[in-house]
Design brief:
homodimer, 356 residues, alpha+beta, Creatine Amidinohydrolase, Chain A, domain 1, Creatine Amidinohydrolase, six-stranded mixed sheet, 10 helices, 19 strands, 25% strand, elongated
Chain lengths: 356, 356
C-alpha cells in the first residue's frame, strides 16, 4: 500500500524518526496487506521491509506488495539487521501499545545504539481516515451485520438461553459471509443487560427482560460492530422510557456529526442529553470508537478523548443506559462521517422490538 | 489460589525476586480466578495484590480470592503503588512475552528504582503440572471436543465448503457446551491441507481431497485441541500410505510418553519414525504443546525445546505430514502424561474416514 506507507514516512519526517517498527497484525495488514499472524514491519525514510518466518513464506510473497520481503527461520529482527536498513544510532518509533518486552529486547540486542521515541498512535491516526475502497468494505461489513440481525430475530424468544442465541448468531454471521467474529458476542438478558461487558450465560430469556445483543462481522478484513436491545413481553416503564431517551441520543448524535470535529464534542452531545434526563450516571462508558481492520480503532469517542474525527472516518456510535440490578439497553450503529455530515451504514430499525 | 501463589513465591525466593508482575489474562485467571479482560497482578514475598478498573469491581469481588483487590479508575499501577507493596529498589520479574512497552513504562514511572529481571516462563513452568481438579476439567474439555467431532461427521461431504464446515463446527461446539473457540478452526481441503496454518476458504470439498480439520473447545476455562483428517472419495496412494505412517507415529508417541521426560525426546520419537520412512522434511512443525487455560501452553514439544514434561502434564500431540501442492494430514489428540505413562483423553477413532 504505497500511499499509506508514504503517509507514515511523511509523519516520521515531521517527528524526525529514521525508522518505525510495526508489530501488530492489523498494522501489518493495513500497510503491507499481510494476513498472517507473525511478522515485523520496518519503515525507514527510504524503504519498507517486511519480515516473517518460513511458515508464511509463500503467503508473504502472494500478499505483500511494495516492501522488501525477508524470510527468517526464527530471528526476524536479525534478518532485518542484515540489510543495514538505517544508521546504528538512528531514532526509531514503535507501537508502544502492542510491542512486547520480549520483542523490544530483540530489537535492542540487534540495534544497541538505537534511540527509541514514543509515537503515540502514529499509525492509528493515519488509519482513522478511510480511503474510498475502505469505505466500500466497511459498508459491506455494515450491510452484512444488518442482515445477520434480521435473520437472528426469529430466534429471539422467551426460553432461549443467552448461550443458545450466541451460537445462532455466530452461525448466521458465518453463513452471511462474515469471516470471523471480531469479538465474543454479548447476549445479556434481564439484570445482566446492565453489565456493559457481560458474557453470554445459560440464563434463559424471561418475560420482562431487556436483552442487549452486541456483535460484529468481518468482511474482507474490515469489521462492523452492532448492538440492539429487545424486550421480552412488556418491559418496566422505567426501562421503556429510558429506551426512548437512548433512541433520541442516537438521532442527536447523527444530526451533529460532521468532520472534522473533536471526538469529545460528539461524545458530549449524547452525554448532555442523558444529563438533561437525569441519566448521566447511567451512561458509564464512551460513546464510540473508530472501525477498521481492528474493531476498536481511532478515533476514541469519549469524554476524555483528545482525538479528532477526520473526514471519512467510519465509527461505531453506541449510547447506552444501565440500571444496576434492573437492566440496561444500548443501541449501536456504524456511521460514516464526512464534511457534509453523517451517513448511517447499518440498516436496522432502532424502535424497541418486543418478542414473546 | 493460595497453593499456586505459594509456588510462585517459592520460585521467586530461589530467583531472589521481591516482586512479580502479572499481566496476561490467562495468568490472572490461573492465579486469582479472575475472568475479566483487564487487570494487573502483583505477587510479593508477603502478599498478592490484584488491581482492575471500575468496570470489573463487582466481578473482581465475586471471583478473586486470596489477594488484596484494588480498584482504580484507570491507573492500575498507581493503585498498586499506593499500597507500598515492596522496597523501591526491589528486584522484580514480569511476563516478558506479554507485557507491552506501554505497561512497562507505567511500572517504571511509578517504581523508577525497580530492577527488572528476566524470568523466562516462571509461571508457565509451574502451570505445566496440572492439579487433580484441572485434570478433571481438561478431561471434560477433551470429551466435549470428541462429541463435537462425532456430531460434525454427517456434515462432511463433497460440495460443502471449508467455510460451511467451520460454521457448523462452531455451532455444534457451542451447543455441546464449549464457551468460546480457543482459536479460529482450520478446515483445509485438497492442496490447502498441506498448509499447516490455512484459514477456511470458500473452496468446496472435492473427490480425492484430504481434509484437515483442527479445532478446539473451552470448558470452564480449560481448552481442548483436536485434529482429524478425512478423505473425500478415494485418496491418492501416496496420501493413504502417509496417513498410516502418521497413525503409527501417534501410537509410538503414546507408548513412549512417561513423566518426567525431556520434551525434545518425545518429539524425537515421532521425528525418527518419519525419518525412517523418508518423510522427515514433510513433518515441518513441532509435535505438540501443553494445554491449560491457554490452548498453547508449556511444555513446548519440539526438536529445539528445552522444556521438561512434568508428571500430570496435559498436552496435545499432533504429528502431521504435508506434501506441498498435493495435500497433507494431521492427527491430534489430547493426552495426560503421568509417571505411569500416557492416557489419551480425546475419544475418537484415528482410522482414516472416507466420505462421499
Amino acid at each position: 500500500m504505497p500511499d499509506r506507507i508514504a503517509r507514515v514516512q511523511q509523519r516520521m519526517k515531521e517527528l524526525r524518526l529514521h525508522a518505525f517498527f510495526l508489530s501488530a497484525p492489523s498494522s501489518l495488514r493495513y500497510l503491507f496487506g499481510f494476513t498472517g499472524s507473525n511478522g515485523i514491519g520496518l519503515i525507514t525514510s527510504d524503504l519498507p521491509y517486511f519480515a516473517t518466518d518460513w511458515r508464511y513464506r509463500d503467503q508473504a510473497r502472494e500478499e505483500v506488495a511494495g516492501a522488501e520481503i525477508l524470510i527468517a527461520q526464527r530471528d526476524l529482527v536479525g534478518a532485518i539487521k542484515e540489510r543495514n536498513p538505517f544508521p546504528l544510532d538512528a531514532k526509531a518509533g514503535f507501537e508502544e501499545h502492542h510491542l512486547t518486552y520480549h520483542l523490544l529486547a530483540q530489537i535492542r540486542k540487534h540495534f544497541p545504539k538505537l534511540e527509541f521515541k514514543l509515537t503515540e498512535h502514529l499509525l492509528g491516526k493515519i488509519a482513522a481516515e478511510k480511503s474510498r475502497e475502505e469505505i466500500l468494505l466497511l459498508k459491506q461489513a455494515a450491510t452484512t451485520v444488518s442482515t445477520v440481525w434480521e435473520r437472528l430475530l426469529p430466534h429471539l424468544r422467551a426460553g432461549a438461553t443467552e448461550a443458545d442465541i450466541t451460537a445462532e448468531l455466530n452461525y448466521i454471521a458465518r453463513k452471511c459471509g462474515s469471516q470471523i467474529e471480531p469479538f465474543e458476542p454479548i447476549v445479556a438478558a434481564g439484570p445482566r443487560s446492565a453489565l456493559p461487558h457481560a458474557r453470554s450465560s445459560s440464563r434463559p430469556l424471561m418475560h420482562g427482560d431487556m436483552v442487549v445483543i452486541d456483535f460484529g462481522c468481518v468482511v474482507e478484513g474490515y469489521a462492523a460492530d452492532f448492538t440492539r436491545t429487545i424486550a421480552v413481553g412488556e418491559p418496566d416503564k422505567k426501562l421503556r422510557d429510558a429506551y426512548r431517551i437512548v433512541q433520541e441520543a442516537c438521532d442527536l448524535v447523527y444530526a451533529s456529526a460532521r468532520a472534522p470535529m473533536k471526538a469529545c464534542d460528539l461524545d458530549a452531545v449524547a452525554r448532555k442529553h442523558f444529563e438533561a434526563h437525569g441519566l448521566a450516571q447511567c451512561f458509564n462508558h464512551s460513546l464510540g470508537h473508530g472501525l477498521g481492520i481492528d474493531v476498536h480503532s481511532l478515533p476514541r469517542i469519549g469524554p476524555e478523548s483528545k482525538d479528532m474525527i477526520p473526514a471519512n472516518a467510519v465509527v461505531a456510535i453506541e449510547p447506552g443506559v444501565y440500571f444496576p440490578g434492573l437492566g440496561g439497553m444500548r443501541i449501536e450503529d456504524d456511521v460514516l462521517i464526512t464534511e457534509r455530515g453523517c451517513e448511517v451504514l447499518t440498516n436496522a430499525s432502532r424502535e424497541l422490538i418486543c418478542v414473546e
